[in-house]
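Table S2 (text version). Query chain:
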Amino acid sequence: MSNGDSRRGRRRAPETDRVGRKMDQAARKMEDAKRKIEQAERKLERELERAQRQVEEAAGPIWARPEPGARRARFTRDQIAAAALAIADTDGFEAVSMRRVAAELGAGTMTLYHYVRTKDDLVALMDNAIMGELLIPDGELPSDWREALTLIARRTRDAFARHPWTLESMGDANIGPNGIRHIDQSVAAVAGLDLDAVTRFELISLIDDYVFGYAMRRRALARDDPEAMAEWLDRASSYIEEQMATEDLPHLQAIMPEGGMSAFWKQLEEADFEDARFERGLTRLLDGIALDVERRGKPA
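Corresponding structure-token output:
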């Protein structure tokens, strides 16, 4: 290369660096502008939701308002609820937002506010959709109270299995039409029992308590870290076996199988995840209710 070519190469290098720096600066400005736009959108969404909540408080729950007119309606409330449930089932309830649901539907966030005014409304739609999964089709509710309560309990268990996050996230949702229909079906299930209204509701709640407890236990077991749980079981088994060798624990010693605590833990774990466990527990509960109903029907 000649001296002239060398000098021209050195001149081009600084020029290339300057262009690169300008491009980097432009990219950073674009990123900053994008963040500012997103922040402004989020702020606008919060302000709009606050305003909409005030309107909602004056107008009542979403169920008291008609759906948007057909001329403008691109989405139904069922479609919106289904999109929100899909997000929660995949990424957890915390991932559900107006922005995310709008994106799932292929709409702008502001468009979604035309259908759902607040996040509370969105949660109400989600809860109503889940309650719809509990409903027994018209004409299919068994006339026998045990069969009816069993069917309702199974449908409730299955809904929790499909949407396990509801156990922690939906307690404050406003009741919707499907929730009221579920209550009505539950009352219909025990309508043939010669009991007062409060006692009937108590029996319905007793079944609900069992199903909720079963579902929460299954969720807790499924979320446990297997390695951490195995380490804990090893430590617990060793300690219990040491205590059994030195202390008077006749009842615990009597049920211990060959293989000691490790074998017993395994048996308990298998029982916890056995599908028939739900049916056994529900049968025992219904047997107890039947005995109580029979006792109440006998003269003192």
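Notes on Table S2: Residues 3-59 form the longest helix (57 residues). The chain is about 75% helix and 0% strand.
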